[in-house]
Design a protein that fits this description.
Elements (H helix, E strand, L loop, with lengths): L1 E3 L2 E3 L7 H7 L8 E4 L2 E4 L13 E5 L6
Parallel strand pairs: 1-5
Antiparallel strand pairs: 1-2, 3-4, 3-5
């Protein structure tokens, strides 16, 4: 199992951040995620493996002004 935000999701061997986001209806436009203690940008989502038991935080785009 992995945890995305406050929800548990099933884990599978070979899973990447891109796979996780494709399965999350609430992922929206997520430019950065925190995978454990590491920050990963969109350019690396498809090549970053997700280990079993990890915590992923979705960091949405925030605009201000």
């Amino acid at each position: 199992m992995i945890r995305v935000g406050d929800r548990e999701r099933p884990w599978r061997d070979g899973m990447t951040i891109a796979d996780v986001l494709a399965e999350c209806a609430d992922a929206g436009d997520t430019p950065v995620v925190r995978l454990g203690e590491h920050y990963v940008s969109r350019a690396d989502f498809a090549s970053t493996p997700v280990p079993d038991g990890c915590q992923i935080y979705l960091l949405p785009t925030i605009a201000g002004g």
